[in-house]
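Contributing: when you submit paired examples, paste them exactly as shown. First protein:
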Amino acid sequence: MQLKTLKPHKVSVIGDIHARGCASGLSVNLRNTDYDVYGIVKPGVGLEEITRSAKEDLKCFTKQDVIVVWGGTNDVGRNNTDKSQRHLQSFVENNKQTNIIIITAPHRYDLDMTSCVNSEVVSFKRKLKKRMKIFSHVNVLDPNVQSEHFTKHGLHMNYKGKEESARAISAAIEGTFRKESHATPLQWKSDSMVDNEENRCLQESLQSPEAATRSSARLVKMPAHLRDFLYQGHSRRLEPKT
């Protein structure tokens, strides 16, 4: 008998300059041969162009696959976050047949932390998580990258930052399929099967020794009638004191 071979999970990474080297990093972390990873990098573009480029890849994607979308840095720098998030939401709504992981835009360590650009980064993350909360097939991931994960000029990630991001994204991908595998299918039962099972349980309960009527020799005191109770109380009040 010929064994059925399982198709590998397709993992597509598409994004701006921060996604460079992400696909190779995922291949190292996802060592299981069940994953087929590839990536497309488009430096200097926003989420509108990134999501448009991903449409061709998603035609053959299913719930057994994942697409990683990494962008937003250029939109934040151009004050174009609202428009880009609308494009991203439309992309998510039109691709419910597969799993989507969205990577948030990192802080700009080449600028002051209190700059208006970094304030917009914080607002971008908050709005993105709120928009995507209603979609069960979407996971918004904020990699734990700090200033030491970036090059000296502070805009692009260094080797350490790419490694940290690849580990976080790999864990999110594995967690997506682990969550699906935990679902336990229940056996469907027709109405006739349910009725037969209820009848069987009823017969077993009737045949059980514990179901027999228990007798007791203890005398049970009958409750006093309300009229007798009131009469006895009234007669006690009429008795003369001695």
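Second protein:
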Amino acid sequence: MAAAATSDVECPVCHENLQQPKILPCTHLVCHKCVVSWLEEAGDQGGCPLCRAPILPASDKGQGDLASQVDALPTDFAMAVVVESEKALSGSHVCSCCDDTVATVYCLQCCVKLCAPCAKTHSKIPALQDHVTEKLSDLTAEQLASHPLTPCVNHSSKQAELYCTSHEELVCGLCAFSAHRQCPDVGGIGDVATVKREELKKHMQKLEEKEAAVVAKINQIDTQVTDGKGQFKAMRDEVKVTFDDLQMSVETRRQKLNADIQEREDAFLAERKSCKLDLEDQKAALSAHKTTAERLVSSAADGSLLGMMGKLMSRLTGLESQKLPDDAKTTTGNLVLMSDVAEKVKKAVADFGMLTDSAQMKGNTADRCLWCGRLPPSEGPEYAAVIKVGDRVRRGKGWRSGYQDGSPPGAGTVTDVPQDLKTGWVTVKWDCGNHYGYYMGVVNCYELRLDV
């Protein structure tokens, strides 16, 4: 991998002064010969040695001679002049006229180094009096590059005076007359350069406007990202709050259900225990009287037997006629069977999703139904006692969810009423066409009211 160049005039590949510097698409500068060798070594994967950006378009890879493709890249002539200027300034400062005296000044038009005596003579020659000289100690490569003598492309010994825009060539007067007199755009170097500088300024302005638009777009994206992160955070916060509330609701609901189950279990076990104790007492009395009867039958004298028969027989008859407890009635306050309890728990769990609506979680929880969490209307029991098929009804306070009776909510007609409201639901056909069943007495829930 090539290291970065240590100076502006140094090639990043060969680390020598740039020769025929080529401007890569990424704007880095590399010697012409180094671009060719770099691409030959790297193949199709070759990119800029500094930033790895592609050097040749994908459509040009493998098309024609590699050197010709590199020739097509623009050459930075300005940098080439700076390189030559730096080379000139870095050499030995010997007067170009007397060859043995240390030079102190440089003529920008003649491109020669002069010692003090020769510089004085140089300034006295009439044709050279307007030439500009600079002290070598103060002259920079950039200053020197800005005043070069440009040679003709066909006559290196002659200074170029004209520029042919059609052929993009710097030519002397002889070449302009002989080879370019038919070209429509041949003008003085200074005049053409002035026009080209204005063109470059316009391009620079467009590039600045484009850069400003890109920066504005980047800032817009940064703002969108910032706003988006804030919105997504707000969503996460809302989800957290919602599910924290839901988790609390679930836990509260679970505790209520478990408390009710425990209460019913305690009542059931207490009743069973009491029933068992009564039966144990009955068993002990039966066993004791049976033993007494067996003893009288087997060993008592006839007189003794007859003397006891009157009172003993009435007691035995009472024990024989004593009824066993009826499971359907031996519960505290008509305790429901375990299967009924299980069924109600299932209904409570199935209905729990309806309890997460915040509108249904309001109100005094002490007044809620333990099974469905709804607040029964005060007129519920009275309506349940008289409701019948054909009655017009509307939803009550304990309504489960708004979608069931259509939108907007309206009235409906009762189509079925169970014989025992405490064991089933009332069926309603709503005016919107929906047909559903609703609590109307089950576990003390009342979801309907008469439309009066």
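If you have annotations for the second protein, write them as plain sentences, like these:
The CA atoms of residues 161 and 173 lie 7 Å apart.
The first strand starts at residue 21 and ends at 23.
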